[in-house]
C-alpha cells in the first residue's frame, strides 16, 4: 500500500509533463442511437500505473476500453497515446496489448505460437521470438506447457497464456477486460497476485476493467469509478475508500451507510438528535457517509450517535456484522469486534457511535 | 406392487421395442446389402439368389461407354455445384455473423427455405422460369438448380461453425498487429476450414445424388448418373446398375463419413 501511494504521489508531481502520461483522453463521448453511454471522459493514464475502471454493468467501462482498443468508434473527443492521436487508427496500428475475459487464445495454435503471434506480426526473427516466448512463459510460470493447445489447459492457465501473449511485445499500454471474470474465487485471488507481480516486474501501464470492488482495491494504483458514462471518482484506492467524493462512490465502492443530516453555518452537523463539529464547507441538507467499520458500540467525544433496533447479526470471524434499523433512516450495517460480549439479539435496542473524523460529509 | 401380468407386459414391451428397432435397421440395411450382393453376380439378368458369382458387372461399368459419360457429367456438376455454393454462402455467412446487419436472421432463414419445399414442386417452378430464360437442358441451368438444393445445407454447416468462433479471436489478432485481412485469414478462415471442407463435401454429394431436378430440367441431352439409373430401370434393366449402386453407396458414405469427422475437429 505504501509503495502504491508513493508511486502515485511521485507521478502527481510530474503530472503536468507530457512524457509521464501514456494515454490522455479528453472529453470523450459515445452515443448509441440517441443513448449517450459515455458523457465526457477526461483521463490521464500515467506511465507505469495500474489504473482500474470500476463500475456496475452498463456504466460504460467496457465501452471506454473498447474505444481505446479501437474496436469501437467514439462520437467526439480526443485520445492521445504518448502524444500521438490514435482516434483514427485501426486496432493493429495502436500497438496496444489486450486481455479478454474469455481468454481469446487461438485454438489451432500451441501456447508458444499464441505468445509468438504479436512478435511474428512485428517481423521478429525466429531466434529472437523463441527466446522471448520462453522468457514470457517463464514469467507467468508455464514454461512446461509451451507445446500444448489451449483446450488442454485450465481456465487459469489459459488466462496466464493470454497475459503473456499480450505482454510479449511490450506494448505501451495493456488493456484488460474483466480478465478474472470467468474464474472461480480462489483462482482469482491467486491470479490477482500474479498480475500484480508481473505488473511490478515489467512496469507496463495497465488499464483494467472490472465490476469487482475487491479486485480493484487489491490491484490498482488508481481507480476510476464509473457511473452512467461518467467518472464518479478518480483517485487512489485509499482516498476513494476513506474519503469517497460522492454518495455513489460511498455506496458502491466503500459500502458506506448514507444518512441524511443538516449542516449549519459553522460546519457543525445535526443528525437525528446528535450534533458534532466538522470541517465541511457544505451547508443545508447533506449526506453522511459512514463505513460499517466506523460504527462502534462505545461512545465517542465528537461524533454521530445512532439508535435503532437490531435486525440480525452475522458472525464473520473476527468481526460481527450487525444489521440494524434506524427509524426514519432505514437499514444500516455496522462491523463490530466479535470478541466483545454484547447483547445484539434481533429486536434489541442498540446505540452506535461514529467519530467525526471517520465521517465523510457529502452533498445530499 | 408388481403383479405377474405387469412383469409379462414389461417383458413384452421391451421385446416389441427391440423388434421394431431391429426391423427398422433391417429395412434400411437390407436393400443396400442385397444390391451389393447382386452386383457380384455374372448372371444375364438380375435374379435372386445369384446363380453365378463374379465381377463382370464391374468390368462392364468401367469399360462401357454407357456409364462413362454420365459419371463424368455428374462429377463435373457436383464439383461446380460445390464451388459455386461455397462462393455464394461463405462471404454471405461471414458478413451476416460479423456485422450488426438488421434482418440478418431473416436472410439466414430465407436461405434455408428451399429445404422446406418439396423438391418436385420446386423443380416444376424452376421449369417454368428456365423455359422463359432459356436455361432448360443446359449445364448452367442444372448447376443453378443443384446450387439451390445445396445452399441450405451449406448455410447450416457454415453458420453453426461460425457461431463457435468467437469474434474476440479476430480482435485479439488485430490488437497484436495483424491487419483485418490477416486476422481474418489466419484466424477465422483457418478455424472455419474443416467446416468449409465438410460443407463442400455435402454440397458435392447432394448434387451427385440428385435425380429430380435433372429429370425435370435436363432434357434428353443431359444424362447424369442418377438419371441414367432411373432410365435404365425404366427401359429394361441393365444389370450393371447393381455395380453402379454399390460403388455410389461406398463413395458417398465414405465422403459423408469424412465430412462428419472434419466437422468434429472444429470443436
UniProtKB/TrEMBL annotation, chain A:
Give GO terms: molecular function aspect only.
ABC-type quaternary ammonium compound transporting activity; ATP binding; ATP hydrolysis activity
Q: Which SUPFAM superfamilies match?
A: MOP-like, P-loop containing nucleoside triphosphate hydrolases
Listed GO CC annotations? ATP-binding cassette (ABC) transporter complex
Q: Give the Enzyme Commission number.
A: 7.6.2.9
Could you tell me the superkingdom of the organism this chain comes from?
Bacteria
Question: Which keywords accompany this UniProt record?
Answer: ATP-binding, Nucleotide-binding, Transport
What is its EC class?
Answer: translocase
Q: Which residues form the ABC transporter domain?
A: 23-253
Q: Known InterPro entries for this protein?
A: AAA+_ATPase, ABC_SmlMolc_Importer, ABC_transporter-like_ATP-bd, ABC_transporter-like_CS, Mo/tungstate-bd_C_term_dom, P-loop_NTPase, Transp-assoc_OB_typ2
Q: Which PANTHER family does UniProt cross-reference here?
A: SPERMIDINE/PUTRESCINE IMPORT ATP-BINDING PROTEIN POTA, SPERMIDINE_PUTRESCINE IMPORT ATP-BINDING PROTEIN POTA
Return the protein name: ABC-type quaternary amine transporter
Organism source for this protein? Planosporangium flavigriseum
From TrEMBL, chain B:
Membrane-spanning residues: 12-40, 67-94, 106-130, 142-162, 183-205, 240-259
Q: Which organism is it from?
A: Planosporangium flavigriseum
Name of this protein: Polyamine ABC transporter permease
Instruction: Show where the ABC transmembrane type-1 domain sits.
Output: 71-259
Q: Which InterPro entries match?
A: MetI-like, MetI-like_sf
The record's keywords, sorted A to Z, are:
Cell inner membrane, Cell membrane, Membrane, Transmembrane, Transmembrane helix, Transport
Q: Does the UniProt entry include the keyword Membrane?
A: yes
Q: Which domain of life is it from?
A: Bacteria
**What are the BP-aspect GO terms?**
transmembrane transport
Q: What is the membrane topology here? A: Multi-pass membrane protein
As for family, the record states:
Belongs to the binding-protein-dependent transport system permease family.
Does the record's keyword annotation contain Electron transport?
A: no
The listed locations are:
Cell inner membrane; Cell membrane
Q: Which GO terms describe its cellular component?
A: plasma membrane
